[in-house]
């Protein structure tokens, strides 16, 4: 399937692009490794088949031959040898197809055999963000966060995938293949990272206006760091530590924010928008759309529809003096 | 004939544009400005002062606004008291008896300012744009909006006929005496 | 001259009674289309309707191409704000919908409507009035969806309209309803044409054209018609269920009430995968015809190609689930679909090998049609092979719904259908118009298209592997997809430019092109046995087929059949397998009723978007026009 002209043109781009953070070709987990290897096996075989077919075609065109006076006068000898060649090519095709099917089935067995893991997460797709619940046998140790998944390195994590509205698809290419989130169903997916780092993923099934801005980040930590993070997330939000943030909290609780968002430890208990209890500790905001910093946060609060047109976060009229405390408060939710 | 056709075509264009427009940013007319004016109105059923009356029309004739209203009706738990319009601890919304008036402006005001005996005020809690959307949706429950813009069923359990199959009835302009006034004192 | 004369007891003039010089004029008067607007709208001539079909198909290709240009402009830069998400969703939906429903399927059928009756040597298609009706329904359905788009009611859920996104809760307004109804429109039309093609091939073949003398072109169109008949009802059922869910509150796709969103996907892809082959099989028809003519020998392995066409047809119904590998279906079942998806490579491979063998043994003449067929090999084989990769469940979980898939199916569809189609236009343009397209412009067109196509679509494989999902209206700069997308956009520009060359070539050549003559390529099939363009009655005498490559076998004089009526529309019906003359059947006269029926059906379809009563009120009117259409006339039938 490789075609040479394009390859030559694109070679520099390919070489430059091997360090993507959302790439099938940058596997960082055992499952993604398996998939990448399988991909390269298939690519090698089909590229060889393409090259052979094209070589035969070119030979067929360049071959020297005498012109035929009557197109209907065919040589039986040539016909027979061509029949043999076509038959052999068809048999070879069949053999390749069978071999590839078996290879594919083997990989499939390895990928989907087990759905067991220590850590189970409930991932719920919303238009256009991800709700992530860390389940625990003790209800008090279960907690909810959004758009950011933290996992311990080297440990398989089971995701239970559900949707609250339309069909989405969970895809972090460096860790595993994708799986759809379908209303009324629960699909299972195991992800596992072999290296500490931040991996980006994105919704892969068209889900409406902001399908393009429905990303999530997976952060892989060492086991100790992960436990520390988990403990911090279980706790409720700390009360604001300075007057500006205190004022920000008042604004949050008296303005429309409180209708949709939850901040554990305050009266804000909306469940239809991302949980903001530890918002300040997240890397991104608006489902992976912007880096989480002061400027972006203020921009997002002032004009969400300019950044993600059609998103469900409404344009809230806030006074100029209200933005600063609100941003400070949210930043402080670590 | 040619003129008639072109006029009909132009009308169709305009109607379609309005009905299908997805206006993500609220228009400047429908901003918080209205809220500060209506703050003084305490009598039931009075249409908000100085409000362009056709704001309601713009919301009621737009399929996107109506469906957003429907989503917000669920999200803000209007269902908790009004069920799916059939009423519960709050009055039914899909019948033709309106305590505080069934015109668009009445409903918007009811949501914004609240009413005695249980309806809370959502002033400042719901942006005006969304109040309009919810009010328009509430009107669609009673079949007061164009049926080709009104929302259809949910992907949900449906314990009732959908909004757009209910019988129509004229809106009540002024409003009736609240239940508290009828009860023996 | 070997001649079979059919005797009939009736007293009317037969072609044996007419002097040779007079015959063409008298037949043309019988079969011709009346002058004036009413005449033009009433015509039942398969060539006139076929020509309109082809032009309409290319018109929609042009509109779909404009949508593609808009998509490419928006994606050329990261974080582009040229087109917002609302409009972008409408545009990419219109692109897919137009290319699949309004161009891909109809253009193959359009070519069949024009060419199949000529190739089997008959005077008109079977059910010519239905043919006119199906064209009008297709035209009105296509115009409806594009007018809706212009009025901001364009569908915005993708050409696949997955529920619940396209369902009542998440798609307010009438956009998805217009889409669902447009599907019903085009499928009614496609089904009607499929029936006509099947009957034409089975019953109207010239005497002597036994099953093993049917041209490969006709075989491919015949198999294709069966695919349409079995695949389209699934999507019509689906689109009807969708519109019922949206308008009448049924619960086919509402999981809370026992419906299932996956039901839509099964119904849609049960149609949607054969659809790909419905678009591709006409491509094989064109390639078979062009390869034989320009390699200067019959296609090698006639029976193998026919059998593999039929096998492709059957297998294409067994692989729809490979569009659903990530929906969490049971793994063993998914494996079955991996196997069947890969298996279809075998019949497709055999066809390719046979064509290459034909070129190997023949002496290729490098004219534009053959160049496009060589482009087809180059691109389609690559696309088919990346399809093998997608058939594997594990690989599919990575590349499904990414630009890798976008690259794959553009390689398959543009390589497998559009390149052969353009070759076919260069090949049959002399037959359609009597004039040749310019060879030099044709070469420019070919090289621009081939290079532009690969620059546009090859980088998409890579952007997909590097994580770019489909159907995103923009992407952040830091993703590193910007260079690849810019290259794609530049390639797309080149590709579009090649079609402007084509358009210019068609416009210039149709007026001032070189006069073609009956058989400019010295081809062997029957359409070249008549004048270019063919007369209204196609052939002065219906040919008698003695060989698969008739015009090469009978170079001196063509054996013909005589004894058909001259002053009345009469076609010869032959037996299904042996093609022995069986009946003389009258062919319907022109009438305006198909147009009126199409208008009524359009009114019902569009009206039903707004009120279900449109169906109730429309039914009596529709019955009335159908009664008028079929009102019996006292014409004498010959047996």
UniProtKB/TrEMBL annotation, chain A:
Its EC number is 7.1.1.9. It is an enzyme of class 7 (translocase). The keyword Oxidoreductase applies. It catalyses: 4 Fe(II)-[cytochrome c] + O2 + 8 H(+)(in) = 4 Fe(III)-[cytochrome c] + 2 H2O + 4 H(+)(out). Residues 243-334 form the Cytochrome c domain. One of its GO terms (cellular component) is membrane. The chain crosses the membrane at residues 38-62, 83-105. InterPro entries: CcO_II (IPR045187), CcO_II-like_C (IPR002429), Copper_CuA (IPR001505), Cupredoxin (IPR008972), CuRO_CcO_Caa3_II (IPR034236), Cyt_c-like_dom (IPR009056), Cyt_c-like_dom_sf (IPR036909), Cyt_c_oxidase_su2 (IPR014222). Residues 116-232 form the Cytochrome oxidase subunit II copper A binding domain. GO terms for molecular function: copper ion binding; cytochrome-c oxidase activity; heme binding; oxidoreductase activity. It is a multi-pass membrane protein. It is found in: Membrane. GO terms for biological process: ATP synthesis coupled electron transport. The keyword Oxidoreductase applies. Subunits I and II form the functional core of the enzyme complex. Electrons originating in cytochrome c are transferred via heme a and Cu(A) to the binuclear center formed by heme a3 and Cu(B). Belongs to the cytochrome c oxidase subunit 2 family. PANTHER family: CYTOCHROME C OXIDASE SUBUNIT 2, CYTOCHROME C OXIDASE, SUBUNIT II. This is cytochrome-c oxidase. It comes from Rhizobium fredii.
From TrEMBL, chain B:
The keyword Membrane does not apply. Its cofactor is heme c. Residues 142-185 are annotated as: Disordered. InterPro entries: Cyt_c-like_dom, Cyt_c-like_dom_sf, Cyt_C_IC, Cytochrome_c_Oxidase_Subunit. Keywords: Electron transport, Heme, Iron, Metal-binding, Plasmid, Respiratory chain, Transport. Residues 64-142 form the Cytochrome c domain. Coiled coil: none annotated. The keyword S-adenosyl-L-methionine does not apply. One of its GO terms (molecular function) is iron ion binding. Residues 142-166 have a biased composition (Basic and acidic residues). SUPFAM superfamilies: Cytochrome c. It holds the Pfam family Cytochrome_CBB3. PROSITE patterns: CYTC, PROKAR_LIPOPROTEIN. This is Cytochrome-c class 1 protein.
Automatic annotation (TrEMBL), chain C:
One of its GO terms (cellular component) is plasma membrane. It catalyses: 4 Fe(II)-[cytochrome c] + O2 + 8 H(+)(in) = 4 Fe(III)-[cytochrome c] + 2 H2O + 4 H(+)(out). CDD domains: Ubiquinol_Oxidase_I. SUPFAM superfamilies: Cytochrome c oxidase subunit I-like. This is Cytochrome c oxidase subunit 1. The keyword Translocase applies. Pathway: Energy metabolism; oxidative phosphorylation. It comes from the Bacteria. Belongs to the heme-copper respiratory oxidase family. Residues 25-546 form the Cytochrome oxidase subunit I profile domain. NCBIfam families: CtaD_CoxA. Its EC number is 7.1.1.9. Keywords: Cell membrane, Copper, Electron transport, Heme, Iron, Membrane, Metal-binding, Oxidoreductase, Plasmid, Respiratory chain, Translocase, Transmembrane, Transmembrane helix, Transport. It is a multi-pass membrane protein. GO terms for biological process: electron transport coupled proton transport; oxidative phosphorylation; respiratory electron transport chain. Cytochrome c oxidase is the component of the respiratory chain that catalyzes the reduction of oxygen to water. Subunits 1-3 form the functional core of the enzyme complex. CO I is the catalytic subunit of the enzyme. Electrons originating in cytochrome c are transferred via the copper A center of subunit 2 and heme A of subunit 1 to the bimetallic center formed by heme A3 and copper B. The chain crosses the membrane at residues 53-75, 95-120, 132-153, 178-204, 216-244, 276-295, 302-322, 334-358, 370-391, 403-429, 441-463, 483-504, 616-632. GO terms for molecular function: cytochrome-c oxidase activity; heme binding; metal ion binding; oxidoreductase activity. It is found in: Cell membrane.
């Amino acid at each position: 399937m490789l075609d040479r002209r394009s390859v030559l043109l694109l070679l520099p781009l390919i070489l430059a692009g091997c360090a993507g953070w959302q790439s099938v070709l940058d596997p960082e987990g055992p499952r993604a490794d398996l998939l990448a290897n399988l991909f390269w096996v298939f690519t090698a075989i089909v590229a060889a088949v393409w090259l052979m077919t094209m070589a035969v075609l070119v030979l067929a065109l360049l071959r020297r031959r005498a012109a035929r006076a009557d197109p209907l006068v065919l040589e039986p000898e040539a016909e027979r040898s061509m029949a043999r060649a076509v038959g052999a090519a068809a048999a070879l095709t069949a053999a390749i197809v069978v071999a590839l099917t078996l290879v594919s089935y083997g990989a499939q067995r390895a990928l989907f055999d087990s759905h067991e893991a220590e850590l189970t997460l409930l991932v719920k797709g919303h238009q256009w963000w991800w709700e992530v619940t860390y389940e625990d046998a003790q209800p008090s140790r279960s907690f909810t966060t959004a758009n950011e998944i933290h996992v311990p390195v080297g440990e398989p994590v089971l995701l239970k995938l559900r949707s609250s509205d339309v069909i989405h698809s969970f895809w972090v290419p460096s860790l595993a293949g994708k799986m759809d989130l379908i209303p009324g169903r629960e699909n299972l997916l195991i992800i596992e990272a072999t290296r500490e780092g931040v991996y980006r993923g994105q919704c892969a099934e068209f889900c409406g206006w902001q399908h393009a801005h429905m990303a999530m980040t997976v952060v892989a930590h060492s086991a100790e760091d992960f436990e520390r993070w988990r403990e911090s997330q279980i706790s409720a939000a700390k009360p604001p530590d300075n007057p500006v943030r205190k004022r920000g909290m008042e604004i949050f609780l008296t303005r429309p924010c409180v209708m949709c968002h939850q901040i554990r430890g305050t009266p804000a208990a909306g469940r239809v928008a991302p949980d903001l209890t530890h918002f300040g500790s997240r890397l991104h905001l608006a489902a992976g759309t912007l880096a989480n910093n002061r400027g972006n946060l203020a921009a997002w609060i002032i004009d969400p529809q300019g950044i993600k047109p059609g998103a469900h976060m409404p344009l809230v009229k806030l006074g100029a003096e209200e933005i600063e405390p609100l941003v400070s408060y949210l930043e402080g939710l670590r | 004939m040619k003129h008639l056709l072109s006029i009909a075509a132009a009308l169709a264009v305009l109607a379609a544009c309005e009905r299908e427009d997805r206006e993500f940013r609220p228009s400047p007319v429908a901003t918080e400005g209205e809220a500060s004016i209506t703050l003084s109105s305490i009598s039931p059923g009075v249409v908000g002062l100085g409000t362009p009356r056709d704001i309601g029309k713009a919301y009621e004739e737009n399929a996107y606004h109506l469906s957003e209203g429907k989503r917000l009706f669920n999200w803000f738990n209007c269902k908790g008291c009004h069920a799916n319009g059939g009423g519960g601890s709050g009055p039914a919304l899909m019948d033709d008896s309106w305590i505080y008036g069934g015109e668009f402006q009445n409903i918007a005001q009811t949501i914004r300012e609240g009413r005695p005996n249980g309806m809370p005020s959502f002033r400042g809690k719901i942006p005006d744009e969304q109040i309009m959307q919810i009010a328009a949706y509430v009107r669609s429950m009673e079949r007061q909006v164009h049926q080709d813009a009104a929302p259809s069923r949910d992907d949900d359990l449906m314990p009732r006929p959908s909004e757009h199959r209910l019988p129509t009835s004229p809106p009540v302009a002024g409003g009736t005496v609240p239940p508290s006034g009828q009860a023996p004192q | 001259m070997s001649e079979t004369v059919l005797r009939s007891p009736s007293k009317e003039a037969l072609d044996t009674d007419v002097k040779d010089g007079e015959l063409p004029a008298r037949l043309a008067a019988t079969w011709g289309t009346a002058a004036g607007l009413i005449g033009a709208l009433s015509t039942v001539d398969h060539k006139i309707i076929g020509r309109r079909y082809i032009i309409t198909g290319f018109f929609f290709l042009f509109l779909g191409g404009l949508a593609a240009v808009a998509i490419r402009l928006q994606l050329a830069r990261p974080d582009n704000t040229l087109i917002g998400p609302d409009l972008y969703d409408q545009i990419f939906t219109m692109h897919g919908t137009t290319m699949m429903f309004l161009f891909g399927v109809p253009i193959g059928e359009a070519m069949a409507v024009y060419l199949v009756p000529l190739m089997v040597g008959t005077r008109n298609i079977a059910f010519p009035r239905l043919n006119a009706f199906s064209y009008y329904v297709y035209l009105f359905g296509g115009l409806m969806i594009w007018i809706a788009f212009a009025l901001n009611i364009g569908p915005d859920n993708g050409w696949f309209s997955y529920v619940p996104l396209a369902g009542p809760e998440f798609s307010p307004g009438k956009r998805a309803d217009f889409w669902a109804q447009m599907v019903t429109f085009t499928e009614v039309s496609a089904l009607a044409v499929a029936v006509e093609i099947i009957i034409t091939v089975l019953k109207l073949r010239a005497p002597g054209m036994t099953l093993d003398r049917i041209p490969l072109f006709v075989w491919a169109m015949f198999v294709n018609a069966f695919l349409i008949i079995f695949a389209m009802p699934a999507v019509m059922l689906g689109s009807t269920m969708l519109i019922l869910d949206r308008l009448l509150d049924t619960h086919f796709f509402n999981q809370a009430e026992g419906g299932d969103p996956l039901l839509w996907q099964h119904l849609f892809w049960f149609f949607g995968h054969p659809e790909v082959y419905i678009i591709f099989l006409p491509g094989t028809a064109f390639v078979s015809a062009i390869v034989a003519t320009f390699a200067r020998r019959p296609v090698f392995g006639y029976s193998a190609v026919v059998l593999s066409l039929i096998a492709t047809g059957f297998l294409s119904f067994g692989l729809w689930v490979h569009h659903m590998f990530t929906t969490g279906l049971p793994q063993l079942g998914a494996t079955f679909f991996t196997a069947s998806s890969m298996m279809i490579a075998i019949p497709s491979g055999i066809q390719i090998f046979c064509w290459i063998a034909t070129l190997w043994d023949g002496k290729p003449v490098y004219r534009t049609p053959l160049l496009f067929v060589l482009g087809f090999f180059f691109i389609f084989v690559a696309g088919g092979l990346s399809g093998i990769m997608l058939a594997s469940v594990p690989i599919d979980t990575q590349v499904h719904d990414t630009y890798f898939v976008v690259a794959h199916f553009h390689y398959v569809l543009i390589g497998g259908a559009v390149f052969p189609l353009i070759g076919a236009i260069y090949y049959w343009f002399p037959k359609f118009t009597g004039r040749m397209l310019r060879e030099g412009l044709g070469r420019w067109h070919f090289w621009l298209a081939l290079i532009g196509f690969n620059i546009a679509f090859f980088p998409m494989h890579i952007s997909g592997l590097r994580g770019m999902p489909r159907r995103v209206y923009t992407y952040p700069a830091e993703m590193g997809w910007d260079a690849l997308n810019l290259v794609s956009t530049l390639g797309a520009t080149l590709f579009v430019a090649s079609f402007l060359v084509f358009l210019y070539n068609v416009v210039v050549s149709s007026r001032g092109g070189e006069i073609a003559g009956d058989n400019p390529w010295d081809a062997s099939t029957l359409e070249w046995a008549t004048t270019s363009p063919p007369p209204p009655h196609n052939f002065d005498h219906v040919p008698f087929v003695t060989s698969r490559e008739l015009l090469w076998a009978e170079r001196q004089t063509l054996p013909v059949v005589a004894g058909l009526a001259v002053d009345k529309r009469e076609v010869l019906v032959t037996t299904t397998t042996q093609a022995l003359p069986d009946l003389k059947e009258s062919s319907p006269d022109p009438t305006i009723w198909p147009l009126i029926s199409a208008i009524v059906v359009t009114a019902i379809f569009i009206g039903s978007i707004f009120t279900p009563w449109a169906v109730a009120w429309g039914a009596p009117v529709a019955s009335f026009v159908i009664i008028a259409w079929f009102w019996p006339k006292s014409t004498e039938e010959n047996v």
